[in-house]
Amino acid sequence: MTNFCNFPNLISDEQNFAPLIGYNIIASRAEKRLAVLNKIYSPLMIYHKEKLDWAKLIRSGKVWENYFGPFEWREKDYEFRSKYADVLKEIDAFKDSKKVTAANFLQSMTASFTQQSCALEGNKLGIIDTQKIWNSLKKNYNFDNIMTNWNLPLPAPSSLSDKEENEVIEIRNHLIATYYLYNTLYVTKKKIDFDEIKRIHQILLKGTPMENVQLNDYDFCEDKFQREFILHSGKFRKLSVDSCISNDVIHPFPIEVPALMRSFLLFINYGIPDKIHPIMFACRILSAFHHIHPFSTANGHVARLIMALYLIRNDYPPIIFHQINQEEYNSTLLMSYEEMDSTSLYALAVVNILNNFIKMHTT
């Protein structure tokens, strides 16, 4: 057995010893994650992989769904509804006496909504730069053309701003997706479906390196497995993903995603319990989509846009996460995932929407 005491220089040299420490940390995290996976997917253990029942169960998404219950209502939800009944009544009173429609409010706040959504993903462009990009798009670009012909190229980022190209593209695409939200989806009033969700995703990825590269199957070559696994816009992911929020967050396997998204559409399109407020329901739309993580990228953007669509269709202004940083936003989602407790997210949304109603009535 190796005795590290025989290597004083190695032990005293923190830089040399760091890789071993890092390896132990990674191994510990992997072991912990494996234990969680075993707990979630234990119902599969009664089946053999080769049997049809096993494949049917895993494809159904029910194992993951039954463990996390993203579409279930719990006692804490009803307690929140009761505890904040007066505040929610005040919000509903604002809604009934509003001066402008919620959709028009979103339209007037397009730049702010976009900037805050992108900031939550790490985009550093502020509201001034975002507003300039929006003004340039409105002045020089015909939105009706893109709404009817999605193959048209979008304005070059250099024509909109001198800021970092990737950040300008993200802002540009989110602005157009927001326009699509209130100008097309809101107007049609149709139930949201796979096509609309994927269209939003395609807009968000348009002109990015991740737009058109396809995923290939494994090819065996020179004793090594080789594959291309770059993202494809508007397509549900084909790879497993780790969470950027926490190593303990478990997103479903790709094979489960289509069924879970069907459950998601049933959840959002077919009503809510009488004692659940629409704002709470909108929050669960957000957290469920985040947790399912159907795409390889841009899930946060898509989730917030779908949430906004639900809210404006029910005459509530969208949530614009002013003064909420990425860490605080992620912590509320983490509570919803791991502790199955969405009350912090509800509280965040209620305060935000109340403030937006006040703004609507004073401008």
Structure description:
- The protein has 363 residues and is an all-alpha fold.
- The chain has helices spanning 8-12, 14-40, 52-60, 62-68, 75-83, 85-96, 102-108, 110-119, 127-140, 143-148, 165-188, 194-205, 257-269, 278-292, 299-313, 326-338, 343-362; strands at 219-221, 224-226.
- Helix 9 (127-140) packs across helix 11, helix 11 packs antiparallel against helix 12 and helix 14 runs antiparallel to helix 15.
- The radius of gyration is 23 Å and the shape is globular.
- The relative contact order is 0.13.
Summarize the structure.
This protein is mostly helical and 363 residues long. It has 17 helices and two strands.
What is the assigned CATH homologous superfamily? Fido-like domain
Supply the number of helical segments.
17
Global structural class? mainly alpha
Give the number of DSSP strands: 2
- What's the helical proportion of residues? 55-70%
Radius of gyration: 23 Å
What are the secondary-structure elements, in order, as H or E? HHHHHHHHHHHHEEHHHHH
Relative strand content = under 5%
The termini sit apart by 75 Å
CATH architecture: Orthogonal Bundle
Q: If strands are numbered along the chain, what order do they take across the biggest sheet?
A: 1-2
CATH class: Mainly Alpha
Catalogue the unreliable spans. 1-23, 217-227
Anisotropy-based shape: globular
Number of domains: 1
CATH fold descriptor: Fic-like fold
The major β-sheet equals: 2 strands, antiparallel
